[in-house]
Amino acid sequence: MTKVIKILGTGCPKCQSMTGVVKEVIAENGIDASIEKVEDVMEIMKFNVMTTPALVVDNVITIKGRVPSKKEVLDLLN
């Protein structure tokens, strides 16, 4: 089943770093996932997130306010 991943952030350097880490983990491990970048502040507010970047996996906020390690992302997606 395809994982639905959303990266919430306005495009700041940390948000870009998180996007890169997530994309690398998906590519390196052959994970079936779609990535959506959510940059609209009103959309981000719907998730009740005040600090970005935030990682949302299948509509559950898993990480917010920091860039995760590759291992952390892999653990979340498995």
CATH architecture assignment: 3-Layer(aba) Sandwich
Superfamily (CATH H level) name = Glutaredoxin
Largest sheet: 4 strands, mixed
Flag low-confidence runs: none
Q: Could you give the count of β-strands? A: 4
Count of the separate structural domains? 1
CATH topology: Glutaredoxin
What share of residues are in beta strands?
25-35%
Oligomer: single chain
Helical proportion, percent range? 25-40%
At the first level of CATH, the class is Alpha Beta
Strand arrangement in the largest pleated sheet: 2-1-3-4
Overall form = globular
SSE order: EHEHEEH
Counting helices, strands and paired strands, the structural category is alpha+beta
In whole angstroms, how far apart are the ends?
11 Å
Radius of gyration: 11 Å
Total count of helical runs of at least 4 residues = 3
Name the average pLDDT: 96
Element layout with pairings:
Layout: E1 3-8, H1 13-29, E2 33-38, H2 41-46, E3 54-57, E4 60-64, H3 70-77
Parallel strand pairs: 1-2
Antiparallel strand pairs: 1-3, 3-4
Helix pairs in contact: 1-3
How would you describe what is shown here?
- The chain is globular and about 30 Å long.
- The protein has a 4-stranded mixed sheet.
- The chain has one domain: Glutaredoxin (3-Layer(aba) Sandwich).
- It has 78 residues and is of the alpha+beta class.
- It is built from 3 helices and 4 strands.
- It has helices at residues 13-29, 41-46, 70-77, and strands spanning 3-8, 33-38, 54-57, 60-64.
- Disulfide bonds join 12-15.
